[in-house]
Every structure is written in C-alpha cells, then in structure tokens.
Structures
1.
Amino acid sequence: MNNSKQFFSTTSGIAGVLLVSMVMVNILTAGGDKFSPKTVGMGRAFVAASRGLDAVGMNPANLALDDRNATVTFNFAPIGFSVGSDLFNYKIYNDFFTGVPVIGADGKETRVGKELNEQDKKDILALFPSGIARTQLGVETSPIGLSMQIGDFGFAIVPSVQTVMNLDIPEGYMKFFLNGLDPTGSVYDLNGTAINASSVGEVNFSAAYKIPFSTSDIDEVAVGFGVKYLVGLGYIITEKYNSSISNSPLRTTPDDKGNLTDLNANFDFLQFTARMDPNSPEPVGSGLGFDFGVTGFLYNTVRVGVSVTDIGSIKWDKRTKAVIGSANMTIYSIADKEAQDSLKKAFKGKTIDTTGFEFDLPTALHVGMAVQMDDVIDDLPFRWLIAADLHLGFNEVAGNTKLAQYSIGMELDPLAGWLPLRTGIMVGGRERFAWSMGFGIHIANTFDLDFATQSIAIITTPESFRNGSVTMGMRLRL
C-alpha cells in the first residue's frame, strides 16, 4: 500500500468508527411544550392568557379565573409531540448529500457523489451555531384531567407522562467527517458532547384563589400553587464530556511500525443513568415538584402574570449506573481490528453500578401579559386576544435551557367561539425560532376539539425548517 492510500485508509476507518459510535450514543434513550393546543398554537404565550386546564403546570393562579363559564372541565387524552434540531435541514441534505445528477452512457440520468468545496463545507458547518448543534425531543400526554371552579377558588388534578431529550453535538464531529486527517496535522475538539433525557410520570394537584382585593388600577388578583408527585421511569445525564481526536503531521516515510502518522484519542466523560427493567414495572426514581403563580388585571386593560414552575428535584435510586470514560490512547493502525475495538470501548466508556443520585427539575421563570383587544377597541366585530411572554430556565436539565425565550401569540374568534384561530412566534431558547399555528372546533361551548403545531415553517420554508410538532386534545365542559 502506498503512502497516500495508507493515510486515507486511516482517515476513512477512524471516521467510520466515530460515526458508528455517535449513533450508539444517540440511541441510548428515546426521549416540552405542554400538551395544550391553545398554548402551542399561541407560541407558548401562556402566563397571562391560559385558563382552566391550560394553566396547570404553567401558571396555576389562572385556575381562579373564569374559563368560558365552565364549572367543571375534563381533558381527554391530549398529546403533544415536538422535535427540533440544528441538524435537520432538508436543503443542506438535498444539496450536498444526495449526489449530483449526471447522464450516463445509456442516456439515463443517475446521481454520483458530490465533491465538496470549501464554501460547501462552510455552509454545512453553519448548522452548528456557536460550535454546537442542538437537538430536542418532547412527548407529553395525559390520560385524563379535571378542573373545577367554585366561586373565587379553582382546582385541578392532572396525571401525565412526559419524555424529553436534549442532545448536543459539537462541530468537531462534522469537521472530522468533512476534512479527515489533515496531512499537516489536525485536532478535532469533541468537548461539550451531551445527552440529557428523562421520562417521568406525574400527578399534579393545583389550586388557586382570587383575592378579595382591588383598587382603581388593579383588579382580579389571584394566586395559585401546584404540587406534583413524580415517578421516575428513565433518566440519563451527561455530567461532563471532554474529548478530542488528533493526528501528527504526515511523515514522508513510514516509521518503524510502517505508519505515516500517529493518531491520538483522548476521552474524559461522566454520565449517570437510571432505567427501568423491561420485565418489571418498578419505577427507578421519585420526587416532588412545585409551581407558583400570580396574576392581576391592571387598568381594566392588561392582564399580567408571573409564575415559577418545576421547583424541586427527583431522586433516582434504583438501577442506577455511572458511565465513565477515561482514556488517552495512541493508535498506530486503524485497520487493526483490535485498535478499532479499543476506540469504540473508549468512546462508549465503562458502565458501573453507582449509588442513587438526585437532580433538579427543569425550573423556569415565566413573565407575561395579555390584552383582550375587543375590550379595548370599540365595535370590533370579533374577539381578539394578544399575549406576550418571557421564559427563562434556571438550569440545563432535559427539557430546559438557560437561553431566554420570547413568545408572542394571538387568538382570533371570528365565529363567536365556534372556530378560534391561533398563531404565535417564539424567538430564542433551544428552538431559536418557531412559528406556531392552531385552531379549535368548539361545539355549543361544551365540547372542544383543538389542534396546533409550532412548526408552520415546514409549509412556508420546507427546505430550511428545523422544528416539527403536533398537539391535539379534547375537552368536555359542564
């Protein structure tokens, strides 16, 4: 084998090992927005706009406010699913990874691999804002929910299951895939690789009270709280991840082992996991969480609200494992099966039993306002609600982020409650940007059927969309 063939064989082999290892990391676990179609359709602007069951887990104070004159409301199996990723970009895939059309000798069109130039590589690496490509997945559902409003009091109980996942992939993986081992020497930084995921069942009991207090400028002040009992079904968190792949400059002649370059791999990471036994229904964790909220009506025009959700923690104390990776290795021949196995093992780490561990819930602060425009604009022929929120997480656990997110949404009601239309946008957070839309079919103010998505951009800009979601739910009002 000549020098260049040996070098590129080494590059191809190590790329294959790394990519297979990445896939193995990605499928360690399968997994949010809440499952309220109204909330999702309005771009998650809920702090001042939510009512009834929509307020549970978001701003419990709103349970004390009128919810379309309903005394009792039932939720029937609402479900919400959302996924988004910097890596989901149909245009990039179509432009660079499906080949280019050519006309064969038989006159038929075929596709052959595209040779990427430097600008193509820059376009692909643009998928990694700030050097990290983020992916998030959320699935939430509830078998049934119940809310009641009695005078100035509001109550609700809602059982649910929530599965969320955050996955961070540094651009070092893609740079290696695109450039391989540089003949002049190269270093690929894999720091920041992380997978954080959890699956939790909960029962949320929330209550609110409208305080008998008002002034000429402030009215309808309400406070609320929620207590949730949590049952852990599965968990994985990356505590740290520091790794790199590098190679020495290409030598003109092989060394005494017949190699043209030395490949170095360094791994230093720690993950914690807890997973249910598929043959046993026993949960692997438990905990308590709390929500608090307050709302008020100012100047007979603007409703404002503040809430803090998911205060608390969950302890994972059954079937707990630690995944430890610590290796500094030099690989002289990637073609060697033993070297490939050693690299895979280093990338996966070593799994050992560990004692229980406790982690915080995705605690977040929410501040918002809402205006019922038809109460402000005289003779407006339909109901029109506008709301705006700020959401700020206090940690980076699964389903949360410290990146601030801003939401603005609206609900139009042109047919006196029969067909509410909703839309909204979200800016910031892990999603960075999302455009939502939804609608409802409400029959005689008794039965509601609602749908929403926070990824309407899949229709308007199908080549560059990066988020997908669908939410639906049914309600009976008495």
2.
Amino acid sequence: MEMLKRPVSGCITIIAATLVLLAGKPAQAERFELGAAPTEADAVVGCLYPMTGRSATYGRDSIAGIQIALDDLAAEAASGLPAPKLRVIADDPRSKASYAVRLAQDFITNDKARFFCGIVSSGVAHAVSDLALREKIIMVGTDHASSRLSIEAGHKYYFRVTNDSWTSMAAGARYLRDLQKETGWRKLAFIGPDYDYGHVSWTDLQLALDELDVEYETVSDLWPKLYEPDYSIYINALQSAKPDIVVTALWGGDFIAFIKQASTTRFFETTRLANFDTGANYDVMMALGDQPYPGLILSARHHNNWPETGRNKRFVTQFHEMTGRYPTYAAEGAYTGIMAIARAIEKAGSADNDEALIKSLEGLQLALPEDPPGFASYIDPDTHQIVQAQAVGTVVHNEDFPPSKLMVGNWAIYDAEDLKPSQEMVKRRRDAVAGGSEAVPPPTP
C-alpha cells in the first residue's frame, strides 16, 4: 500500500487505512502505522483495536486518540522537552483471542514491539496478557474492563489506564445506595454479556453493594451472548421479574440494540435501567435521538461534557477538529495509554530496561482530560490499575455536541480514593485463586 504523509507537529507517517478510519468510512486495510519512522523510534507500541463490526467505532476513535497523543508529544519535543518518539502499529484482533495472540506475537517478532496497548474485549485481553507475561512485554490496557485482569490475573507486566469494572460498579453501588434512600427501591436485576467482563461486572457490583450494606433482592440475572442480535426474550424475562432497577454491562452496539428493542415495549414505563461503565458513551447519546427514555442512569470512562476543565475541552476540541465528530470514551483511553508509555520512558531514561519501566509506571501520575479539578489520575502500585474519579448521572437535553441532542447531566461525583478496591478485598480474591478456587468465573474462550 502506498504510504501517505501528513505534517502534524512534525512529519507523521501514516498508512491510508488510518486516514480512512479517522474520516469514519470503512477501512481498506486492518493494519495501520503512525508516529515515528522505524529508524527514528525510541520504542514500538503494538496495539489491538477493532476495525469492523459493532465495536469498530471504538477502534477508529482509539486511532484518533493515539494521534492526538503523538501530536502532543511531538509538540513537547519541538519545544525542547524530552518527549520520546514512538512508533505505533495496530491491527484488528476480530474479537478472537487466538488471532489476537498471533498478531501480538507478530508485533514482537516482526516489528520489535516493546509494548502492547489497547484491546476492547476482556476475554481477548486475558489471552494477550498471558503472552505479555511469557514474553516479558509491558502491556498497557486502554479499553477492556474486567477487574480480574488487575486483581486475580494481575502480573508485573500488565497495567490498565482506564476504569475497570470494579471502579465503575463501586461508583454505581454508591449511586444505588443514595437512590434507595430517595425511592426505597428493593428489587434488582442484572443483564450482561456472557463472557468474562459481564460476569465480573455482576460480581463487582454485588461485592460493592455488600460493602455499603445495601439491602436488596436479586430477581434475575441474564446472560445473552456478545453481539446478540435479538434481546426480546431477555426483555420479556426482565419484565416478568418486575425489578425496580436493571443494571446492565451490555456495551457499545449491544447496549444500543437493547435500548432500541426495549423501547418498543413497556420496559421503560416499569423499571429504571442503569449502565455504570459504558452507558454514557457518545455513540449511545447519538442513538437515543432527541427524547431521553425515562429512568436511564448512565456513566462512562470519559465524558465530553464533564469535567468542564480546560484540559477536557481541549481534548474534545482536538478530536473534533481532527475527525469532524465527537469522541467516545475509547479515544481518551487510547490517548492515555500512549501518554503513560511516553511518561514511563521519560522517567526510566530509555525503553530498554523493563524493570525501570515497570517501576516508572507504578505510581505514575497522569493529568488527564477526565480528571476533575485538583486531582490527577495515578496507577496503583499494587494492582497496576489506574485510580480515577467517576461521574454518574441521568440523560438531559444538550445540543452542544451535535448531532447528539442529549448528554448526561445531573451529576453525582464519586471520589477516586473511595472507588479503589480495599487491600483486604484484593488479597481475598487473589488468595482464593491461589488456593484453587475462583473468586469470579473464569473467562470464556
């Protein structure tokens, strides 16, 4: 394929497929490359993101987020700061663990990658994390969320720089506790995808509710397959169970499909629907049209309209100027992954010493678009999970980010330190695995 060049804070090499993805059109190829040339790069980062299917939006937004990070680093270097030159290579794992592992191995063998990044599916992430451990390659997760990856399955080479399922469900549990004081709700149902992320999200929510002494009755837990086309039997089952609140871990196109199909029934007349991890994503906001369904409680790992800080406004504006659209949370996650790798290299002095890089990442502070005033995200040295605040709210009219006419507002803000898993819980879950039992279900291949 002919290589194209475009200058952004220096000369950035990028293949044509990347430009097509940034424009929001079908990709002509899966693999793309951007950043420094092979002979100039201080390190190569191999990323795995979806380019096709229901989750392709996350892949194209991640590419744009990576480009913004590279542009920021190039601007720093131009001003005399010691920003490393990174070469980023990415490919589509097609939501298949075995294929993802093969691609990741190719990153090491053919591209001399020193880091892995990305991955949307938690099941795929488990497989690549195992490879990272075997090959001693630092892996920086930017999208998948199963807390098992940083607790039970955590290891020295694995780091994650976006909210995990524990963080989101801990925030959700606090919202539900406060809502119970207002409304007296008691009956709870859960629906999530039948793989690691879905099951761990449900476990995390129950653990978080128990820690807060919230009294409730579980009336249903349902497990459609990932990318399920028809949710009618699940919607009927939920209506029959008559919960006060349904919490879901469905995400992306699956969550949108569920909402669309539920809206053709009386579902939203009889229950509230909460999605504490991915529900407030921008693609969901667009899909809701101009009338918010009653009872929606949503959050996401990054919001275009919260916090209202200069750093967040700048990031959203950069993304919009680059792509002509507004970002889903995947963009800020990918941006964070590249910036974390760059900062670790800066602190370590080079990309050649794994132990120095790991030490640099442990406790690393990152001032990010999603950070509220007075707080900077940091990576917990024990779990290697980033520690961040989270905002949960309801859907309101807001036309500041067209074509969406809705956004989340009426925020409830939860402090980052309050959302960290306790040392006791982390130890208990790790000890359970070490003792031969599973604290949460194993991932589905």
3.
Amino acid sequence: MAKPRKTSSESPIARQLGMVSILIVTWNCRNAIMTCLMSLARLKDLPIEIETLVVDNGSTDGTVEYLQESELTFKGIGLKVAYNSKNVGLSRATDQAYRKARGNWILLCNPDVAFNTGFLELLRYGTSHTNAIMTTEMVHENGKTQRVVTRRFPTVTRVFFDFGYVGSFLDGKLMNHLVRRRYTYQDENFPETVSVESPGASFLLLSRRAIENLGIIFDPRFPVWWNDVDLAKRAERAGIKRILLSSVKVEHRQGHGGVLQMESATRRYLFCRSMILFARKWNMRPNLLQFLFFVDAILGLPLSTVVRQIRNRNFRVAIRKSLQDSALQIRGVISV
C-alpha cells in the first residue's frame, strides 16, 4: 500500500498545515477517477504530506478493479480505498472517509476534478484562514469558467425558476436567464478572493477546526443533493466564512463524476425530496415549494415531452420518460 507523501520538516507550509487529507467518493466513474488520481500523482514537488482517502459506493463499471490496482501502483499520495457493497450516498461515504482521515486539513474533492499547482495556492491561503471554507474557480476543459457550482443561497423564486421545468423555461425564454444568472453569480467579476454564500463541494478545503465547529461535514438527510448548501448554511450560522479564490483555476469535468449514470427520473426524485427536506430544515416555505413543484410536474409534462420528441424523434419514448420523470418529481415533493 502506498505511504503518504513525506515532506521536509523545514518547509514552512508543511509546518503550518500538517497533513492534508483528500476525500473522494466514487460511483461508476472509472475514467474520471483515473484522471483525478493521475493528476494528483503528477504533482511530485508539493512540500506537504498528503493522504488520499477514496470511498467507492458499489461501482459496477470497473472503478473497483481500477482502484484495487491503484492502491499498489500509485506512490506518494497515500492512497487508501474503502469499498462499499452498495451506494450509501455521498454524505455518508464522505463521513466514512473523514472518520479515517488523519489530516489537520480536509479537501473534499469530486472524482471529475483534475489537480494542478493551484492546489498549493489554495493550501497557502488556508494557512491564514483556519476558520473558513475555501474553494477555487472551477473551469471546463477548455478553460472557460463554470458559474454553476458556486451559488447564492436559494430562495423559493431562485429554486423554482432554476430547477422547475416550467420555471426554467420561462426564465430562459422570457427573462434571458435573469434569475439563473443572479443565482449563480454569472454576471459577477470576482476579485482575487471573494466571500460567497454557497460554494459547491466539488473542490472544498476545510480545516479540522472548522469541521469541529460545524459538528459534521454533510447532513446524511441529504444523500446526494443539497448537502453542500446545507453545509454553507450551517457555516453561516457558525460565523464561518466561505471564500472563493478566483485566481486559482481547477478543471472540473462536470457530469463525469458518476451521477449521470443514474436514471434521470431517479435523480429528479432524490433532488426534489432533498429540496423539500432542506426547505423544512431552514424554514424556506416548504409547503409553497411542494405546491409549486407538484404543479410544475403536471404542467411541465407536455413541455418535457415536446423537448424529448424533438431530440429523439420518438413520441412514445418521449411521453414514457416524461411521465416517469413527472411522477417521480411528484413523489419526491410529497413523500417527505
């Protein structure tokens, strides 16, 4: 088994940081985790000690076999892998990794992220901001900025017009995506460091001190979605700032992390269920959200059918998938 990368005790940043634990959860994302681990292993001269803790959530696409080989072949990144027999969700798997972590600093990392030397810049910033949550500017493979990961806190209006079938259609066609642009900071020209409301957990650095102040990293009631938003809300309540370093760019191959392997209707159900649970926890008018997304499922049925018909040119397939999605959206919002 690979040992954690050793570093000179003379390195100032090493003395300040101690060990850094990188937590990654995988599920059916063999190619993505391969790219991620290889990019990390290529950072040979990092003056820090790291360990990389991967939890696999019952992958069936060859991810498990790749990780088993990687435990023996990767050197210097302290790779340790835990294998779950089923998918226990991102939140529980993250906690599973955290309970084994030895680092003073924790990096939450999606498997569809590629490391570069900006990782060290993020760590350097962290040495003087131990009671903060920090992230970077996420970019596509072509270098274009992704302004969908970090968001403002949700409101009923923002959620409906960004995530509802009908709402997102109206926002796009009638308002030029005004709500979405505001929600996701798309019109902001960030300075080098900026305080944000709700950073996504694709690449998120926290000190152990901050996590202890929060109690847990992710609330297990939100297994896949809304867990990072809940984390940000708890951080705000605890007086922990969320800071984005726009000068540091990290490649995020969005959509390659395994979630898209899930059936679209199942994704919709889990998303909507977690949304209502979040709204109840944070008093975000849950009854109104339930009503809006119930109506949205009914009114959005013909709209999503037309879109699928145009895309696939098969009306029967389009209506079947749209019915399934609408039914599970209704189930998601009323089953809580």
4.
Amino acid sequence: MVKDMDIADSVLDLIGRTPMVRLTRVTEGISCPVVAKVETTNPGGSVKDRPAIAMIDAAEKEGLLSPGSTIIEPTSGNTGVGLAIVAAQRGYECIFVMTDKVSSEKVDLLKAYGAEVIVCPVDVAPEDPRSYYSTAERLVKERPGAYRPNQYENPVNPLSHYQTTGPEIWEQTKGKVTHFVAGAGTGGTLCGVGKYLKEQNPDIQIIAADPEGSVYSGGDGRPYLVEGVGEDFWPDTYDPSLIDKVIAVTDAQSFKRAREVARKEGLLIGGSCGTAVDVALTVASELSHEDLVVVLLPDSGRGYLSKIFNDQWMKEYGFISDEGLNLEVILESKGSDVPRLLYVRPEDSVVKAIELLQEHNLSEIVVAQGDLPLSAAEIKGTINEVQLLDGSFEEGFLKKKCADVMGPRLNFVGSGELISSVLLKLDQDQNIIVMDKGRPTAVVSESDILSYVESSREGKNG
C-alpha cells in the first residue's frame, strides 16, 4: 500500500533534488539575479550527503565494505553526517576524525548518529602524525575491515556532483546559468558541477570562493576560522583546469555575510556559505540583468550557533564591537616602544624568552607558532616570570625549548569589548590576548587600562 503513496522507502532516497531560491534583499542595487542552490534540505543538512552515498555505493560494488565494517574518514563534520546516515541504514560503524576548530555542535551531531569522534589539532601539517588526515590513515591500518572513503582522492566525490548537482542546476535554470559560485574544499562540488555545466555551455564561468589563507587562493594553508572550506594541500579531487577564477574572502567578511543572509533572507546558513555568497555578490555586481549567478549553499547555520551566531563569541574574537569606550581605544593610545604582540616560538630556547622579557620589561610572554599576522590556533601558551624562577634551579633548564616549559595560553578578549568588561576579565588574568577580526593582535594588562585612564584625566585637567 505504501508503494502507491508519495513516501520514500529510505531517508537515503531524500538526497538531492534540492530547491533554488532567488536572493532579493542582500542583492539590493545589483541588477544581475543571484540564485541560491539550498543544499540544507538534504536529510543530513548539507551538500555532502551526495558524495557520501555515492562513495559508499561504489565501495560496496567493489567489495570494499561488508556487514560490520567500519567507515573511517577525516571530516569537518558534514561529510561525516552524510556517511553516518548511510551507515545507519546499512549497518556499518563509523569513526570520524575532526580538527579542534570545528564547533561543538558538529561533534555532538556525529555522536548522535552513534559515531565515534576523534579530535585532532588544526595547526599541524597534513603529513604530521597528529593531523586529522594522518590520524584517519593510521586508524584504517589498525582496524581490521575498516574502509576510508577518502573524499580528498576519491573520484566518486566530484562524479556524484557531475551526475546530480550539475544536471539539477542546468534543469532548474533552464540552461540560463552564466556563473556558478561555490566554496572550494575537496573541490568535489565545484569541479563536478563545473565539468557538467561547461559541457552544456563552455562559456559558463566557474568561480571558487576561498577562505583567505587557503592554498587555492595563494595562501599557505595556515589556520583560519571558517569551517569546511579551503585547504592546506591540493586534493586530487580538485581540478584547477575547470576553475575560471578564485576569490579569497576573510573570516570577518564570511561571518558578516552569513549573519546578514540569515537576518535579511531568512536563510540560516553556515560560515562557508557566507564565503560563497560574498563572492557571488562580488561577481554579480559586475554583471547585467542578462546574466544569472548560481551560488551553492552547502550547509545550515545550525551547526554554528555557538560561534558565528553567538554575539559573545563574535565579540571575543573581535568580529563585532560594543558601542562606547572599548578596548581598541586603549590599544591606539599605547606607545610604540613595545610591539603590539611580542612572542617566542615553541622551538625557541628559554634564554630567548628571558631576553625578551628583560628587554621589554615584561612579566609574561606569549608562545606562538608562525609569522605575523598570527591566527588564533597558532597561539600555543605563555611563559611568565614565576615559571622561569621555578625552573631556574633545574639543570639544563636554559637549554630547554619554550614548548617544554610553557603554561596554558592566555584568554582572549575582543578589541571591540567595553573597557568595563575587559576589567572584569583582568580580575581573573594578569594579561589577556586581544583579538581583532579573528586574529591575535596584542596583549593587554590592567596597567595599560589604568595608564590610559590616568593620561585621560591629565589631559582633561590640562
């Protein structure tokens, strides 16, 4: 009887055939129509459901999976959810490896599907044994019967979009699409759709939206805050010959755009969607009403409620500001004798930390990995006078690396936070790292604020 009704036999039958909607309020003043392909309607809430089922189907045909097998995959969350849905339907176990920059909602979501989740540091090279790529590979070798779909190398990933997403866009726009914009992660969506659309019309432009810092737009892959897009290496699934242009977008602009789309269009989208929409609007602003820009929205903003849709998190990372006397005023008043952010690297000797503390008359110094401008993930810890004093009695202490003696990293405070709020935080900490648009820019202490207050009084009295 059910067979005669419009009822799916499985949640897997609901993957694909996602709707498209025109963006009307964020495109004000732009004559070229911008249409969003809304992938949040997939059962797993993202575009990654498409390659997930396709990769498992292919693995089953090749005999790589059998009842009781374990699927292991490094993921920023969305591919994991897609794989977990397939695994739930077909009786497989799952282990997903994620970086520590992903939101807690994503970790909890995967666990809700019964998956095991392992979290690894984000600020290590792909070949580092601690990276989420290397960890996943090690787990596959250690676990009998394990299978890794490997979305970064598996040709079925872009093929799934060539066979489904691309044809859907072509059909839904009646072949009128002139520009396609999507984020570049594994490259599967961008290249699979791009290949199909260019076969229909070679003049269609394929544009990659990329986080600032990702290798696709010329970065070195150093950590950024946008999740699920960009890379620190070149996946086999990314075909640069299909891409006409790559446009980089900052974390700040991505988050701002995501919040704007939610509030103006009623579409709650993730940070990587903000990246894609920002690029789509940039592209559309240079086109006419005869063109048609399609932008793919890969996932929902529900996985980012504790981050980009949380005002407190946004303030702490310096993306939004309070009105009134805020910390930025204090920083601008500080002299130039001491660099805004003075730090030692983990591999530097303790001697170097002591020399910098003495040279600049500081009581504490940050330990960070990388060159300026640093990312939040590159802040590793701190070394203070007490730690140095305690260790000075140890033999060979001065020859140790800073990484071996450092304590926990300092807490963050946003550059736009009110002075009153900062003072409350300084009741708990001697120094705090100041974040501006997601990047650490300075260290501030209670004495800095008191000096500003005193100088302001003197100025008024004078």
